[in-house]
Design a protein that fits this description.
The protein is α+β, with helices and mostly antiparallel strands. The chain is about 35% helix and about 15% strand. The protein is built from six helices and four strands, in the order ααβαβαβαβα. It has a four-stranded antiparallel β-sheet, with helices on both faces. Helix 2 (about 25-35) packs antiparallel against helix 4. It is globular and about 50 Å long. The chain starts with a helix and ends with a helix. It binds flavin mononucleotide (FMN). Flavin mononucleotide (FMN) binds near residues 153, 154 and 157.
Length: about 170
């Protein structure tokens, strides 16, 4: 499969089989996240693999968007570690985390696993539930698992704006 075919075939999976993905696949996904570029190579990510019954119950109590995935990656960042753009004053941590998460999402798809990028949760509730250190900020969740047999892309999956709306050649 080419990268273009992978990008075309991936979709957000919101219904999972109860079969737990093999540890090697999870490790491979994490390793692919490790390869992601980050600003100044500062690598401000911290990723929690939620796989125990207790951890999955906690995350499902916080958001309906953990779905029934047998594994959920809670992708966090440490702002203090990240590069700050001195012109805009902006901290690049959220951008770094976005790239790390994208690497993992696409590698999961390449390995035949489903995932769904999730922003719909209260980060403070997650920090409390998992007793995260003060310098660790949860940014997004990535439920992972084999798609359920009846899993299909959402109706809006293929709904993309034309390039004429989002691109301008100067
Ligand atoms: C930053 C971000 C946050 C998202 N948050 C959620 C979410 O909380 N719940 C959810 O079901 N999907 C979430 N999604 C998935 C998007 O809704 C989905 O990617 C988009 O509708 C396109 O569909 P597709 O992924 O099937 O192509 C999120 C995606 C991104 C990139």
């Amino acid at each position: 499969m080419t990268f273009r075919q992978l990008a075309e075939s991936r979709y957000s999976v919101r219904s999972y089989s109860s079969v737990k993905p093999e540890r090697e696949l999870i490790n491979d996904i994490l390793e692919t996240g490790r390869l992601a570029p980050t600003a100044r190579n500062n690598q401000p990510q911290k990723i929690y693999v939620l796989e125990s019954e207790d951890a999955l119950r906690k995350i499902r109590d916080i958001t309906p968007c953990a779905f029934n995935a047998p594994v959920v990656l809670m992708v966090c960042g440490k702002s203090e570690l990240a590069w700050k753009n001195q012109f805009s004053g902006k901290n690049m941590m959220p951008m770094d985390i976005g790239i790390v998460t994208t690497h993992m999402m696409l590698r999961a798809a390449e390995l035949g696993l489903g995932s769904c990028w999730v922003g719909y949760f209260d980060p403070d509730a997650a920090s409390r539930a998992f007793a995260l250190p003060d310098d660790v900020e949860p940014l997004c969740l990535l439920p992972l698992g084999y798609p359920a047999e009846d899993s299909v892309p959402s109706e809006r999956h293929a709904d993309r704006k034309p390039l004429s709306e989002t691109v301008e050649f100067l």
